[in-house]
């Protein structure tokens, strides 16, 4: 769906993107991760043709990015806004028409979405009279109104209460099931693990990691085990003990080059092993680790 | 193109539908005829409804006789000043004029006593009358018959005729030309300021509420800017058109209605007695009509529309550029100066140079330079401007607004996506030079 080759962009002396390659296959939810100021927004703006890259190529559906592709993309920016004085209906109509829908098509689509998200009673309300969550829904509908095959959502859940966030999450998954490719830019890792099939991580203008969630998780394995022992037969080395609870001891140990079985054998000499489990790092930990390691190296 | 059209529509409809637009558009034209109507009505009321004011005159010189008018009657008695004052206090007299004995070459000590503060009108009426009487008296004393003076008093009015290359003569009248230039210049000035500001506010609104990022993912920033400028121009033109229609209709109604009760001439005399006297005595009505019909209305109307739009587009682009560079209207102040100055210069120039001497060098340059020409040239057009000057000025205005639109587009394109930093002129210059 989207292919980016050696994309570069700098603002004066500041590099925003350097030699970024990216491939997003059709029908996936693709997570674009990275700390603030890493270059995510720049990348997204280039895909949306808001700004141009300095060098490199962007392809959409195999074609070099061109103005006609605007209609294929639905874009929800991180900082979003609506005309406060405009009515919900007029606002949606305006955005839909700007994306190239005919007036009659737009009306049908708006009706469909208002009904779907149970917002028909709001159609003649002005944006300034809506709650923040409601306005966010209007914004979301405006983004997907023209059925774009590629959806780019920048921090889509910020500003939503948990109930509405759930609704939006379900909508995203439904769109995905219908074949929409979704690029999700966020630093909220729990939503990444829930939604994304693939991720790419950007830090300091460079792509530092990409792949499926499983691939990414296998790249960074700290090889630390979480262990619980009880009915001790021998005193534990004092540096091990993290928590004691009625004769049950919990702690973590790194493999330190050993085979897991060796470690298990060793542990069995101290007492009964109730738990022996590898700690799989969360996306958040991988994220922090990767950011730190690229900054140090 | 379709997208620009959508933006134009939105900008236009969202403004025209506002209640404030309706209010301003409908009320403003009501104000002029209303004020006119009220004044005429008050004047008529005063004249008709008020009883004659009697003023007691005590002239210790026993020399002056003041003629009574419609409003004031003078009563001459030999009563003492004290008695006269008493009459005023008791309310029997409107006022009391005391002319003490004085040397006729140096009249001093004349006083007016009244229960209320007398109007400027009354005082100058009394002063004029007394001056005339004293002058007559002095002429008489030096042996000249005042009647001779009256006989030789002459009114002069120059009929001004413009002569063009083909020898066509057009009767012109500086007053009418002045009025046309004055009104047209001021209208363009106000239009640029009011609607330029609306452009700027609109851009700032879109920028600060972050709508702009969604918009520019659907269309080019330049299209967005142009759509906004044109849409708001449409709002302005609509307003202007409604005003012209309403003012025309209302003025006709008001003057028509009042005209039945008061002849035109009288109304004009009340407004400015001296001027109309001169006009009425020495130029007949036909000549005024000749002046009015001698003005090239088509040329003036076309130039007005051209400079109206040209000036607006030139400045509108600058206003849009400024709006895009800042985060809030208060930040915009720092960039407003270079835009305001040429406008104010043109406005001042209109009064100081152009309307007084439309063909001076300063007037010429003000009406050629694109930044000042929309206002300045309108001040000159009604006096008649050589074709090549008009063409040069218009051509430069077109070049000017293409240039400002280009510059503003460059600033706009980068500015609308920049938040949190206050740009300086240096950064703006950098943005203009950046190619994207």
Automatic annotation (TrEMBL), chain A:
Claim: Nucleus is one of the keywords in the record: no
Cleavable signal peptide: none
UniProt key word Metal-binding: no
Recorded family membership: Belongs to the ABC transporter superfamily.
GO molecular function: ATP binding; ATP hydrolysis activity
Sequence ranges assigned to domain ABC transporter in this UniProt record: 2-229
UniProt xrefs under Pfam families: ABC_tran, DrrA1-3_C
Name of the protein in question: ABC transporter ATP-binding protein
Taxonomic lineage of the native organism: Bacteria, Pseudomonadati, Bacteroidota, Cytophagia, Cytophagales
Annotated keywords: ATP-binding, Nodulation, Nucleotide-binding, Transport
UniProtKB/TrEMBL annotation, chain B:
Transmembrane intervals: 21-44, 178-199, 211-234, 240-260, 295-315, 335-355, 362-381, 387-408
Membrane protein topology class: Multi-pass membrane protein
GO cellular component, as recorded: plasma membrane
Keywords: Cell membrane, Membrane, Transmembrane, Transmembrane helix
Domain of life: Bacteria
Pfam families recorded: ABC2_membrane_3
ABC-2 type transporter transmembrane domain residues: 19-408
Any one GO MF annotation of this record: ABC-type transporter activity
Record localization: Cell membrane
PANTHER family: MEMBRANE COMPONENT OF ABC TRANSPORTER YHHJ-RELATED, MULTIDRUG ABC TRANSPORTER PERMEASE YBHS-RELATED
Protein name: ABC transporter permease
Organism: Algoriphagus ratkowskyi
